[in-house]
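EI: anyone free to look at a 140-residue chain?
SC: sure, send it
EI:
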Amino acid sequence: MYTPQRIPILKVGRALIVPIQVDMDDATAMQLQERILSELERTGARGVLIDISLLEMVDSFIGRMLSDIAAMARIMDARTVVAGMQPAVAITLVELGLELPGVDTVLNVDEGIRLLRDEFGIGEEGDDSLDLELNDHWKA
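SC: here you go
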């Protein structure tokens, strides 16, 4: 029996950090959506940073899931930031006619952390322990 891959969801301050380091199939995407929403409710987080820098390809279902996560998070009073979109992924999303309304995009995780830090205070400027903790989760 197939089991969806488990993607970590880290809570840092008032944000959830979601490093996607595997190719996502539909079951994994559905499970991730449910888990993010559950964690938003459980923790009261106000931001979701989804790192997709290792995703080389998306299909229409995964694109819709990202958009749906953002819409649902917005209803739960949280902001969604997608970091590290590769050019091929951006091209695919445009070719599929998918927009990501309500999703802020940034070039990399550092920019995403900075954006959420400024808005939600997930750490103080110069707080190296925050960056070290997060960097451990992005190592390949």
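EI: The longest helix spans residues 26-43.
SC: 👍
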